[in-house]
């Protein structure tokens, strides 16, 4: 049995791929205010949330439990609207040697969009399960953020 793997989920969203990429690349600290399963986020190291050297500390609900981890940005691909995050510490290190989450905002035909999350991991042992709970968490977070982005769009349209 392999200790390494990759799993992913792709969800259709109402907000544009550009808006999704903007919030993930420039306003990630706002997620804690709009996603029900994200309880807090703080800058642990560094001066800016959106640079590779910064370390963020996240608190969230995973598989019915409140857990924490640290996260850094590994890479940002603006052309393909893709960001790779390295997760480590606390909830991650006890189960995984390697844990990378990749976010991608995808433009679809007809002006629609989708958000794709992929998780590449290496388990510490065969007894550890693949991190499907993270895909479930990402599904909830995507729905909450999408609702926020759509509502924000309506408020902006009503002001004009």
UniProtKB/TrEMBL annotation:
Similarity section: Belongs to the MLP family.
Domain Bet v I/Major latex protein: 2-152
Biological source species: Phaseolus vulgaris
PANTHER family: POLYKETIDE CYCLASE/DEHYDRASE AND LIPID TRANSPORT SUPERFAMILY PROTEIN, POLYKETIDE CYCLASE_DEHYDRASE AND LIPID TRANSPORT SUPERFAMILY PROTEIN
Protein name: Bet v I/Major latex protein domain-containing protein
InterPro entries documented for this protein: Bet_v_I/MLP, MLP-like, START-like_dom_sf
Pfam family, one: Bet_v_1
One GO process term, biological-process aspect: defense response
């Amino acid at each position: 049995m392999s200790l390494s793997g990759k799993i992913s989920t792709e969800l259709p969203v109402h907000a544009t791929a550009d808006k999704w990429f903007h919030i993930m690349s420039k306003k990630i600290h706002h997620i804690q205010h709009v996603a029900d399963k994200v309880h807090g986020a703080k800058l642990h190291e560094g001066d800016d949330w959106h640079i590779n050297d910064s370390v963020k500390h996240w608190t969230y609900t995973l598989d019915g439990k409140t857990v924490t981890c640290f996260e850094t940005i590994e890479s940002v691909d603006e052309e393909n609207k893709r960001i790779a995050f390295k997760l480590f510490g606390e909830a991650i290190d006890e189960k995984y040697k390697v844990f990378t989450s990749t976010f991608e905002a995808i433009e679809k035909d007809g002006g629609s969009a989708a958000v794709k999350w992929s998780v590449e991991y290496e388990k510490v042992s065969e007894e550890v399960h693949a991190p499907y709970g993270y895909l479930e968490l990402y599904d909830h977070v995507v729905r909450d953020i999408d609702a926020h982005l759509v509502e924000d769009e309506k408020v902006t349209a009503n002001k004009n």
